[in-house]
Design goal:
alpha/beta; Arc Repressor Mutant, subunit A; D-Maltodextrin-Binding Protein, domain 2; 8-stranded mixed β-sheet
């Protein structure tokens, strides 16, 4: 008989791109995950996955089974959450550390939904750079935090993506272009944000052989925009969460496209409110992918 464990293993292998990654995500041994998928294939009488050096791919039968497997796993997860909510209301304090660029766009709607579902939980919100968020998580000042994914040593769920864009003065030669490349930005003085964005685009710059001439540093995005407005340099910032652009500043799509994947992370010893918030984010992410 097909079990939820088999379906969960199958879905996780597909979503993680392989058995090794799935075993890490599930906290199970790789042979255990392989046996679960093999048992499911045996029961269905068809191979669901093609194993290769570059990971796994779905067979025709696998594609047909995946949607149903995801639906079953989602329903079981939702059932467990609702039963747990009936059995015992979540109480206490949710200490959440967020990044200023995503609090209004990605975090606030999730906190609103969480407060409606768990009215007995007090919510405490901290804002800081990504480095500060990680420090607060490590030190116990916050039990949940918004971080760039992937993240090691913490349980996490996908919150959303931020597309990075080029930010240039309106009278700069780059403003007339439909897209702006890393190499073109490197020809101008660069204004770097110290709030965590640099960790996203710096590896991309290195990969394409570009090094920026950093002329200014600023923590707040509004400060970066004002420096760019003063014709003192160009920058890269996340499009989601940008303050209103001042006159004299424009944004352009960045080439190559650079995306910052954000998630909510909690420590293994996180409290019930933090765990409940993580489960909400995971459920939201699962629904968004369908």
């Amino acid at each position: 008989m097909t079990t939820v464990s088999q379906l969960t293993a199958f879905v996780t292998v597909v979503e993680q791109g392989g058995f090794a990654a799935a075993s890490r995500a599930l906290g199970l041994s790789q042979p255990g995950v392989s046996r679960a998928v093999a048992s499911l294939e045996k029961e269905l009488g068809r191979p669901l996955l093609v194993r290769g050096r570059d990971g796994v791919s779905l067979t025709k039968a696998g594609r047909a089974a995946l949607a149903h497997a995801r639906e079953v796993v989602r329903h079981v997860s939702q059932m467990r959450t609702e039963v747990a909510g009936v059995a015992s209301a979540v109480t206490g304090t949710l200490s959440l550390a967020s990044l200023p660029s995503v609090t209004a766009t990605l975090v606030a709607p999730q906190l609103h939904a969480f407060a409606e579902r768990h009215p007995a939980v007090e919510i405490r919100l901290l804002e800081g750079s990504e480095e500060e968020v990680r420090d607060w998580l490590d030190q116990g000042a916050a039990e949940a935090g918004v971080v760039s994914l992937p993240v090691r040593g913490l349980d996490s769920a996908v919150l959303g993506d931020q597309l990075m864009v080029a930010v240039v003065p309106a009278n700069n030669w780059l403003a007339s272009k439909d897209t702006v490349s890393y190499a073109e930005l490197a020809k101008e003085p660069f204004v770097i944000s110290t709030g965590g964005c640099a960790d996203v685009f710096t590896p991309v710059a290195r990969a394409v052989g570009v090094e920026f001439d950093v002329a200014f540093q600023a923590r707040e995005m509004s400060s970066v925009l004002q420096i760019v407005r003063a014709n003192l340099g160009v920058s890269i910032l996340p499009s989601a969460g940008l303050p209103p652009l001042p006159d004299g500043v424009v944004v352009r799509p960045l080439v190559p496209e650079t995306v910052r994947r954000l998630g909510v992370a909690v420590s293994a010893s996180a409290s019930a409110p933090a765990r409940a918030f993580l489960e909400q984010i995971a459920s939201f992410s699962s629904r968004s992918r369908r």
